[in-house]
Amino acid sequence: MNPLRSYKETQIKTATPGKLILMLYDGAIRHLNQALEDLSMEHRQYDSISNSLIRTQDIIAELMISLDFDRGGEIAKNLFGLYVFMNRRLLDGNISKDKAPLEEVKTLLTELRGAWAEVADKAGVSTGSTQGGGVNIAG
Fold it and tell me: Is 66 left (phi over 0), alpha (psi -120 to 50) or beta?
């Protein structure tokens, strides 16, 4: 087994729910940055750009699935709408190979990640030894 993959899976399986959300945001931003970097290259690698954007969309879909509408109420509904918007903008950017919608999504993801980190830190959910779910986002 690949040691890096094993390490990532262990990190995910032992993370708190708050830490898992932060990891999702980090992954989405990382893949989006890769797509933006590939778009900046003189000889664009369209398959790499598309793959990075699809991975970003997959992570946003995972964030959508993680929403708790019963406990989250209006905030969960607003986040869902925002995630739908981001996925639509990622699709637009992927089709047109235009940086503008991708930069827009990056800004939103970065702001949401910062807000979540602040809330999780205040609530004490981003650290600790409580075991999280077995979500496999290591792929």
Answer: alpha
The total number of structural domains that make up the chain: 1
76 within some domain: yes
Least Cα distance to 88 among 77, 104, 73, 75 occurs for 104
CATH number at residue 57: 1.20.120.340
Domain membership of residue 116 (yes or no) is yes
Q: First CA to last CA across the chain, in angstroms? A: 13
**Token couple for 23:** 């990891």
Pick from 31-45, 53-67, 112-126: least confident: 112-126
68: exposed, middle or buried (C-beta count within 10 Å: 0-12, 13-18, 19+)? exposed
Residue 106 CA to residue 108 CA, distance in Å, equals 5
Per-residue pLDDT of 78-101, as tens digits, reads 999 999 999 999 999 999 999 999
- Which domain, by its residues, includes 94? 15-123
Please state, in angstroms and rounded to a whole number, the distance separating the CA atoms of residues 94 and 54. 9
Within a domain: 44: yes
Residue 31 in domain: yes
pTM attached to this predicted model: 0.79
